[in-house]
Design brief:
The chain is of the alpha+beta class. About 20% of the residues lie in helices and about 35% in strands. The strands form 5 sheets. Strands 8, 15, 16, 17, 18, 19, 20, 21 and 24 form a 9-stranded mixed beta sheet that branches. α1 (about 1-15) runs parallel beside α2 (about 70-90) and α3 packs parallel to α5 (about 210-225).
Length: about 475
């Protein structure tokens, strides 16, 4: 593979490329979807191919193929070069200039204790079936869904600058949902996904079968739960719930391509424009968001991004102040940075790397504070667990979020279950209201397995970790009416 990759790079240089790279990937995935007592999808596939990027005259050319041969590589390199050359005629005056990156010759592999692909499909399906059967035994549960997804990507990256990087990334993910119907009403409750770059040992640690009856019972209980009283309330949010709020209100607004207007799909651009860097109050002094693509088990922990940039750790928001962004080699120079933060990722060999959210997490409190201690500080509020529906405007400012499970908080105690709660806020106001965090013991590396961006759309995965957090005076409304 190294010989063919070097041939591609050498040919691009001979043609006159200012820069070129090639990614050869071997993606294996397994997916099992179980509905009630029947498997609805069983998939085990490999996707194999390569993609070539060429920079010429300040413009990109890209082409790909699922055939690996010297003749095919020659064809694809020439195609990518011709696209770049033609595009340079219409490119911006200044064109594209890449941030610097040292030459790397390295190999990175996800630490795996139990290779998930050595576990038989029958055993995996049996686990999901047992989960569904357990949920369906609970009175009023009429539907049960469960799924398991395993990915393993082997990639060879070679650049015209001299880098040659091998990576092997393994990700596991599973989830299930119970649907309860009673009279004319229905509710759902999920054991929500906890994806991780790890092996089958992570699936074992989740105790999925052991939690199935509880999840089903909570789905039934939600039907009889009270609706919230609308108005300003304090919120205690758990890490799973916060992962989505972080993703949408901090992760996407600090992608530099979105900030600069290069990207506007899927809820638009960003209010966090470059003149705010270093001075804009994004939240209270408790708000510290750290990007860390070296985080053990992190979904964006890949050793190197798809531009050959070494994974890093850096601050996005420090003591409430916006200090940095996620960047690629193309956009980093637009704000005077000499090096990319390593956020250029592609979802397949046939996709061009784009600016993606890193592993981005809310730092916990220094003190060993528990969720119960946060709740004890609330006189009138709501505890929210898990993810629900959400929406956010075209500048990532005005938003609303739901959840999966809700409890009323009265005079420092968690009380009766609630249903159909949503909260509204504006990003800086919301994070400005942060008034308490639990300690490291209660921090969880939750994340998103499928994040859509771009056109044509690409999927990406990233960890958005958090502790439990207390927010003051947030506008709460009833969802269903």
């Amino acid at each position: 593979m190294k010989e063919l990759s070097e041939y591609a790079i050498g040919l691009a240089a001979h043609l006159g490329a200012d820069y070129s790279d090639i990614r050869v990937t071997d993606d294996r995935s397994q997916r099992i979807v179980m509905v009630d007592r029947s498997p609805k999808e069983v998939q085990d596939e490999n996707i194999y191919g390569f993609g070539v990027r060429v920079l010429k005259g300040g413009a990109w050319g890209f082409a790909s193929s699922n055939k690996i041969s010297k003749k095919e590589i020659e064809k694809i390199v020439k195609k990518a070069f011709s696209i770049a050359k033609a595009s340079s005629i219409l490119s911006r005056k200044k064109g594209i200039f890449l941030a610097q990156e040292p030459v790397h010759k390295d190999r990175f592999t996800t630490p795996v204790e139990i290779n998930p692909f050595t576990i038989g499909m029958e055993e995996k399906a049996a686990m999901l079936l047992k989960i569904n059967e357990t949920m369906l035994k609970v009175k009023f549960i009429v539907k049960a869904y469960s799924y398991l997804i395993l990915n393993r990507r082997k990639q060879f990256f070679t650049s015209q600058e001299g880098s040659f990087i091998e990576t092997e990334i393994t990700t596991v993910n599973s989830d299930y949902t119970a649907v309860a119907v009673k009279g004319n009403d229905s509710q759902m409750r999920s054991f929500q996904a906890y994806p991780k770059n790890a092996g089958w040992e992570h699936i074992f640690s989740l105790k999925m079968v052991e939690n199935a009856e509880r999840i089903a019972q909570e789905a039934v209980a939600k039907i009889s739960a009270a609706y919230p009283k609308e108005g300003k309330k304090d919120l205690v949010l758990n890490p799973c719930h916060l992962s989505l709020t972080i993703h949408e209100s901090v992760g996407h607004p600090t992608e530099l391509d979105r900030v600069m207007g290069y990207e506007a799909n899927f809820a638009g651009r960003s209010f966090a424009t470059p003149e705010k860097r270093g001075n804009f109050k994004y939240g209270s002094s408790l708000v510290n968001f750290i990007a860390d693509n070296t985080l053990p088990g992190g979904l964006a922990t890949t050793g190197y991004d798809d531009e050959g940039v070494k994974c890093q750790r850096w601050d996005i928001i420090k003591n409430g102040i916006l200090v940095d962004y996620s960047t690629t080699r193309e956009v980093a120079p637009l704000i005077g940075e000499k090096r990319s933060r390593g956020s250029g990722r592609a979802d397949a060999y046939y996709s061009f790397p784009i600016n993606r959210i890193p592993n981005l997490y809310l730092a916990p409190a220094d003190k060993d504070i528990s969720p119960e201690e946060l709740i004890s500080k609330v006189r009138n509020g709501i505890y929210i667990e898990g993810r629900g529906s959400f929406s956010i405007d075209q500048r990532r400012l005005n938003f609303q979020f739901g959840g999966d499970l809700f409890y009323e908080i009265k005079n420092g105690k968690k009380g009766r279950m609630l249903r159909d709660v949503i909260y509204h806020s504006i990003t800086p106001d919301f994070w400005g209201s942060l008034d308490g965090l639990t300690g490291k013991k209660y921090w969880e590396p939750r994340g998103l397995f499928y994040c859509g961006k771009g056109e044509p759309m690409q999927r990406a995965q990233m960890t958005n970790g958090a502790p439990y957090a207390l927010f003051r005076n947030i506008d709460v409304k009833r969802g269903k009416k």
